[in-house]
Amino acid sequence: MSSKSTSRMKTSLAALGIGTLALAATGSLAASGNHAPISAPKPASGERVQDDGYVELVEAVMPAVVNVRVTAENPGEQVSLRAPGMDPDMQEFFERFFGRQWQQHGDRQPQPKHRKVQGEGSGFFIDSDGHVLTNAHVVDNASQIEVVTQDGTVHKATLRGIDEKTDLAVLDVETDQPTPYVAFADSDEVRVGERVVAVGNPFGLGGTVTSGIVSATGRELGAGPYDDFLQIDASINRGNSGGPTFNLDGEVVGVNSMIFSPSGGSVGIGFAIASNLAEDVALDLLDDGAVERGWLGVNIQSIDRDLASALGLDTEKGVLVSNVMPDSPAETAGIEAGDVIHSIDGATVDGVRDVTRLIAAIDSGTSSTLGILRDGEQLDLDVEIGAMPNERVAAVEVEAPDPDQPRLGLRLQALDPEGRERLGVDHGLIVSAVEPDSPAAGKNIRAGDVVLEADGHEIASIDDLRASIRERHAESGESILLRIARNGDRMFVAVPFSVS
Questions:
Q1: Would you call 382 a catalytic residue per the annotation?
Q2: How many structural domains are present in the chain?
Q3: Catalytic residue selected from 131, 137, 155, 342
Q4: pLDDT score at 221
Q5: Average pLDDT, the chain
Q6: Is residue 470 part of a domain?
Q7: Quick one: 283 and 188 in the same domain?
Q8: Is residue 337 located within the same domain as residue 475?
Q9: Which of 350, 368, 387 is the endpoint of a domain?
Q10: Is the Cβ–Cβ distance between 338 and 306 less than 8 Å?
Q11: β 410-414/429-434 pair status
Q12: Is 342 annotated as catalytic?
């Protein structure tokens, strides 16, 4: 499958005194069956909006919008600022709305290590089967996830798939009833000045609605190679992450992701991931828990006036290859540093954004033709597009479908060389999610841990771990001894079995 993507912005514009903030509080899809997506009453005319506000629109779409609550383990010592004698609930209220530094003269009280941390965000149902789309940074590293619908019902949820490059994730919600859901609009048709409505969970205040207009489209913020944001002036704040922005037909035009702010609060500049990108990623994540992207294996840069002059070009269109990665499709095809890519399969490319998106949208194993300028000579090079390495798969189950298979409640993924180097291990499986109320959760195993050994045997694959679990269980063992790597430390954890 193919997709385009962005990742959450982590850089700040210090020179301007402005920061970009992810909005999580700290913390065409086909309908299944005969269930149709929610839509706003027609017509949603300008006159109706002026006379009645957005009442009918909001009433229609609200059942599909949810609050996302997560629990994660904080591995370090925490320090809170607490006024002497203050009621804990009141303390939590002030910290939630004014930040942990609201009280300048409180006493510093160290909290226990491995303290559970609560986080909140927003999301929305994208089909009638209980799948919720939200931001990756809302649920990343969560040990437990809950989804709260507008009627206050709390549902357990698990991570179906996550794509950090676009800051998007899909959740599976446990429910035996069809869920109300909303459809995606074509974000290419969104116009600057169009009215929009944002719904979310700012500061934990669920079901909050704000309105505004689209201030700009196609924003590239430096978040990643797949940037495609709508800029909106509807007020969004911390906790709005993953919530939808609707057009007046009740269709999702964007997924709220971050704000521009010098203070941490809304100043009327918010960014939502464009719906076309969000829908593509959601479909990939629903399919197999991962987003597959085409990979060329080059570093590229934009061509400015000076570069064009130095290269003897009469245009600034295209991209300059600054590096070719070893053993990459580009190297095999004969692409060299200094080449200028000006077309892909006959489509002219203007800049870096065009190249990254076109290549990412090509299925791996597909042959593609690149139009190249090299030393003033026009070349057409055929390249077999590869699969982008280091893509994260979030939903590979350890448990087999055998009803007698002992289970731990872990979701795991293999580690690529870059991941092993980053985590300081030479083998093992990384925990991408822990099922709530599972044996692993009871032993404080959490997302981000690396399983190195099981009963003294090194673990290099999921099959290795599965075999160790079955062998131990066949010996009438009640638990299995895992060796875990966490934040540079090593520890042993005995995890009891449960049976599916």
A1: no
A2: 4
A3: 137
A4: 52
A5: 75
A6: yes
A7: yes
A8: no
A9: 387
A10: no
A11: antiparallel
A12: no
